[in-house]
Write a structure and sequence with these properties.
- The protein is α+β, with helices and mostly antiparallel strands.
- It is 30% helix and 30% strand.
- The protein contains 2 helices and 4 strands, in the order αββββα.
- Strands 1-2-4-3 form a 4-stranded mixed beta sheet, with no helix packed on it.
- Strand 1 and strand 2 form a beta hairpin.
- The longest helix is centred in the C-terminal third of the chain and has 14 residues.
Length: 83
Amino acid sequence: MDQKMADSALEREKLATTKLGKIAIPHGGIEHVLKPTLGILTSQAGVKWNHDGQVNLVFFIAFNQQLESLNCQVKCNTNGLFL
């Protein structure tokens, strides 16, 4: 990731929270991803998440354009399987 990924993820979080219960899945712009990465943070005590309370599990997703395209293809090809 480049130096602007953290700022990008924080700006994205201002648009809408990525908190789902006690889990958060933040991400920034794909233009800041040099190498696809998945970061995982766990905390029994919890981590303050914006004004939404605390989370105990954070998955930081950093996909680049290639993986984003593949993700779209997988979703499009498997959409009918889960109906």
